[in-house]
Amino acid sequence: MALKVKCPTCGRECEYSEKNPFRPFCCERCKLIDLGAWAEGSYVIKSKNQEADDDLDISEEALATGKLHSKVKPENEM
Ligand SMILES: [Zn+2]
């Protein structure tokens, strides 16, 4: 007799045995989804670090604006 458990991802009943390599998940997809949730959690932390990069982007934009002004100047000189 096979022990049946509910898949933590989709809630579907699946066989909890050596026959099912994805136990306690019902299939590989549900296992990957659960792992993906973990990966998403670390991604959120990563994007938080990227906020500091956004600040750098703003200063880069300011530099670009300064470049635009210096580009205008030679035109005025001509
Ligand atoms: Zn499932």
UniProtKB/TrEMBL annotation:
<protein>
    <recommendedName>
        <fullName>DNA gyrase inhibitor YacG</fullName>
    </recommendedName>
</protein>
<feature type="binding site">
    <location>
        <position position="10"/>
    </location>
    <ligand>
        <name>Zn(2+)</name>
    </ligand>
</feature>
<keyword id="KW-0479">Metal-binding</keyword>
<feature type="binding site">
    <location>
        <position position="7"/>
    </location>
    <ligand>
        <name>Zn(2+)</name>
    </ligand>
</feature>
<dbReference type="InterPro" id="IPR005584">
    <property type="entry name" value="DNA_gyrase_inhibitor_YacG"/>
</dbReference>
<dbReference type="Pfam" id="PF03884">
    <property type="entry name" value="YacG"/>
</dbReference>
<comment type="function">
    <text>Inhibits all the catalytic activities of DNA gyrase by preventing its interaction with DNA. Acts by binding directly to the C-terminal domain of GyrB, which probably disrupts DNA binding by the gyrase.</text>
</comment>
<dbReference type="GO" id="GO:0008270">
    <property type="term" value="F:zinc ion binding"/>
</dbReference>
<dbReference type="GO" id="GO:0006355">
    <property type="term" value="P:regulation of DNA-templated transcription"/>
</dbReference>
<comment type="similarity">
    <text>Belongs to the DNA gyrase inhibitor YacG family.</text>
</comment>
<dbReference type="InterPro" id="IPR013088">
    <property type="entry name" value="Znf_NHR/GATA"/>
</dbReference>
<comment type="subunit">
    <text>Interacts with GyrB.</text>
</comment>
<feature type="binding site">
    <location>
        <position position="30"/>
    </location>
    <ligand>
        <name>Zn(2+)</name>
    </ligand>
</feature>
<dbReference type="GO" id="GO:0008657">
    <property type="term" value="F:DNA topoisomerase type II (double strand cut, ATP-hydrolyzing) inhibitor activity"/>
</dbReference>
<keyword id="KW-0862">Zinc</keyword>
<feature type="binding site">
    <location>
        <position position="26"/>
    </location>
    <ligand>
        <name>Zn(2+)</name>
    </ligand>
</feature>
